[in-house]
Amino acid sequence: MLIATWNINGVKARLDNLLQWLDDRSPDILCLQEIKSVDEQFPAEAITARGYHVETHGQKGFNGVALVSKTAPDTVMRGLPGNDDDPQARFIEGLWTIGGRRLRVASIYLPNGNPLGTEKFDYKLRWLAHLEAHAARRLAEEEDLILAGDYNIIPEPEDVRYPEAWTGDALFQPESRAAWRRLLGLGFTDAVRAATADERIYSFWDYQAGAWQKNNGIRIDHLLLSPEAAARLASVGIDKDVRSWEKPSDHVPVMVQLG
Q: Is the pTM of this model over 0.85?
């Protein structure tokens, strides 16, 4: 099974790229973030015409997450549990039964948190606390679980080309990185780092200052695997070349293959 995550940065603006990538890769499940569309205006027909099922949790002009899958999920949950009053659409979770085995996948768009010293950073940390609590509950169910998405967290210095340039950014703050380590400490596996320790492996390149051309990137798009899912991990991939396509997102797809 091929499961991927991609911050599409506006599904309507990148629809051609999305359809091309679906044709090229044929993922079983794709988690999208930052769709920037209400549910009713999501261009689902173009995707379902290719044989996919679509579930969305949208928001006008901002945020929004979606699940695109070859088979419809058994159940779908919209919104992060314990965070019911959150007005921002940042979490959707689906449960599939495939080959008699349960697979749960969440698409996550974690708050950016900038600028520091504002409510936006406090919101990010609160959101992370809710995610940690939900993740712990899900792990107790002992099933294949993948928490995929744009975490807006740079875990370690090797996950950024120039760490010194990010010391004042919410993505690289000690509190953000400590929350990431607590997630891993619950028992999750960071799929990309389980496959390679190489530096300069990124998933995001800013549109400004020639970041893509200079490979001035960061790794903020992650797939966290429960022990049960990690035991099935066969391979990991990052489709870096997608960043060079016409009208690209500033993120690229990150994938895991489960055996």
A: yes
